[in-house]
Amino acid sequence: MLIAFSVAPSGVPSDGAERSDASVHDAVAAAVRVVRESGLPHRTTSMFTEIEGPDWDSVMDVVKRATEAVMPFGSRVSLVLKADIRPGYTGELDAKIERLEAAIDDVDTP
Question: DSSP character for 50?
Fold first, then answer.
């Protein structure tokens, strides 16, 4: 199972401090730290973090904990999530990209 998610705070943090640059990198770092500590295969890009796990419970537990890690950074949290549920497949975090690259190489260019 692959999950791509993005989590970000909005509003005023619980300590009342406001960031002048509106950056959320500290909050995102807290979420990514949870993902990295999970031990599940993962990849973080500029807009999403992808996680691969054997089942709903293992992956969604990480997403929940990552979301909870962001909560102190705002009065509310936004979570965007996309899932690819394909029972019996593992290693798809990289395999999907490898298949895409192979298909690009096979395409005849005009």
Answer: E
Q: What is the DSSP letter of 40?
A: S
CA–CA separation, 76 and 39 (whole Å)? 27
Residues ≥6 apart with Cβ < 8 Å to 73: 9, 13, 24, 26, 27, 30
> What does the chain come to in residues?
110
- Half-sphere exposure of 19 toward its Cβ, with a 13 Å CA cutoff? 14
Each residue of 55-105: pLDDT tens digit?
Answer: 999 999 999 999 999 999 999 999 999 999 999 999 999 999 999 999 998
What are the chain's domains? 2-106 (3.30.70.930)
